[in-house]
Amino acid sequence: MAPHPQRLTVTRRAWALARPITTAYGVETTVDVVVAEISDGDSRGRAEGVPMRRFGESIDSVFAAVNAMKGAVVAGLNRDTLQHALPPGAARNALDCALWDIDAKRAYQSVSDLAGFGAMTPVETGFTLARDTPENMAALAAANRVRPLFKLELGDNDDMERVRAVRSAVPASRLIVDANESWTEVRLNELMPTLVDCRVELIEQPLPADADDALARMQHPIPFCADESCRTLADLDRLDGKYEAITIKLDKAGGLTEALALVAEAKRRGLRIMVGGMIGTSLGVAPALVLAQQADIVVLDGPLLLASDRVPGLRYDGSTIHPPDARFWG
């Protein structure tokens, strides 16, 4: 009997945040996601994409881009042909990870097996402190003081006070900071003594991506990590001499296929790997756990920042994330 043709269903949903979050775009109370579901009558694969406004995406544009691929999916779209059919971004991520999911189910294997990694193990995630007043960030850190790693979102004149307040609240935890492209070279040099004194381990994207050449001439006792400066494999050459680490996000890279290639080449070049993600549900985090097996630092706490998650979703024990049940994803 000939196999059933595969078909694509696309849905979108807004998920409420547990508490409002201040970003470069204002105060956010919800996060919008797009879900791509591919089925062939026997197997089903699904995955989630979260628009990245930094790269010009919106919920409408991502939904439209995924929806426009329905004909290609019926015609036999696969992970290889997808890489040329869509550019990097949340739409390609949703489709790519859905294809990985259905391919694994068709093969009666896990995605991790298909990727050549064997069985996944639990990973430890950092906990994100969204940009807020120093007092509020310190209070949230103190309420989560048992967590081993905090990532501080920074980006204005109170950054020095934020780092000091959080360090005082959680003296035993590890700290990394994300400047979100907000600093200048002068500001970074001003902040560096405080960051060193507060034992910050990593500085993510301190300068704008189009102005980061300055990093090559800076003395920096703390490693720099490229986020917006490193989207895909093609960006690695321009990072030489400026960064010691990169952040890989599935929505940024455009799916697990590109992200796996990026991990392999970054490791070959001696770069450290941080796996992060957008705020979203467990369905967005599950594919990233495949990457997390290869990472030095993991910050995949998105579902913890929501008022509610998918049921069933991933199991978080404190800061430990357990691999997904194959029926959920992978």
List keywords for this structure.
2 domains, 22% strand, alpha/beta, Enolase-like, domain 1, globular, 8-stranded parallel sheet, 330 residues, TIM Barrel, 14 strands, 3-stranded antiparallel sheet
**Individual helix count:** 11
Rg of Cα set? 20 Å
Oligomer: single chain
Rounded mean pLDDT score: 96
Helix content: 25-40%
How many strand segments? 14
How would you name the CATH homologous superfamily of the largest domain?
Answer: Enolase-like C-terminal domain
- Identify the strand order in the major beta sheet: 5-6-7-8-9-10-11-12
Using the coordinates shown, work out and report the CATH topology of the largest domain.
Answer: TIM Barrel
Question: How many domain units?
Answer: 2
Strand content is: 15-25%
**Which structural category do the helix and sheet elements fall into?**
alpha/beta
CATH architecture name of the largest domain: Alpha-Beta Barrel
The CATH first-level class of the largest domain comes to: Alpha Beta
Largest sheet features:
8 strands, parallel
Uncertain runs with pLDDT below 50, 5 residues or more? none
One letter per element, helices H and strands E, the order comes to: EEEHHHHHEEHEHEHEEEHHEHEEE
Distance between the termini: 26 Å
Shape: globular
